[in-house]
């Protein structure tokens, strides 16, 4: 009997040991699956956020949202990067521009929105509301240290204190994996399919395509003290020896850098960003810009670097100067036919008085936080049929 009892005890111990082994094995499998799942999520997150070069100080990713599109999109289509700045005081403009692009295309667009950390939460809450929930976007923080020694405060040139206007100089850093990109200001509305602008042909060796200021009589804006602001002498000081040595004709037609298509492969090959920074520094040291300058101070370095080395975009893709006065410089029929409307100038469409503010407002989405609101002195009663 004692022998039988011992055998029974040994069998019971073996069964208990086997159960313990099974439990340990199950726990090990569960732990392995949990580790594998964690690693997969980490890799997925890394792949989603790998948009900017971590080696570049000043341009750091904040987040990337890739939701389901409102319109059917062929994911095999080439991705179209659209870079746009978003300053706190003009955030409504950025939102309207993005909405107009999104609603008028079925292309695979991703927005690279350059802003400051202090504006990111406000921007994100706006983007996550209403019809913009389905867009794909990347928010990138712009560190003003990038501009140290390259710009100086000038009371006559207010934009010297607006760092985000220089984001366009750093396109290859903002979208390092792209071969081409579109840059546009926040005071635009897109009425055509952005794919057509993206497909603008660039000549061999050209890093960008702009809209020239001589492309139509309507773009010749009279600036007090500067005459017709559509040539190089309106932006550069030809009394300075360094400018004269460049042998650039003062009568050369200028171009508008508020909307352009960039060949980023050529941009990087020619070190365009370094060239632009060089002329920014030289201006700080020598004052190379025209003192009657009425446009953005980002224009002169671009005019120098791209002198006779740029392609052109269709004039209808940058119908500008809508913000040069409160009056209507274009007919309703022309405004309706334009592919892109640009309110460059002092009279912004979200401000107190602007031409065709009603056209802009069709694409505006009210701020869910209530921080940004339209300023209206009177309602524009004209409508485009």
Automatic annotation (TrEMBL):
Chain segments annotated as transmembrane: 20-40
Keywords on record: Glycoprotein, Glycosyltransferase, Membrane, Signal-anchor, Transferase, Transmembrane, Transmembrane helix
Pfam families assigned to the protein according to its UniProt record, in alphabetical order: Glyco_transf_8
Localization annotation: Membrane
Top-level taxon: Eukaryota
Classification via CDD domains: GT8_like_1
Residues making up the signal peptide according to the UniProt record: none
Main location: membrane
Membrane topology: Single-pass type II membrane protein
Annotated family: Belongs to the glycosyltransferase 8 family.
Annotated protein name in UniProt: Glycosyltransferase 8 domain-containing protein 1
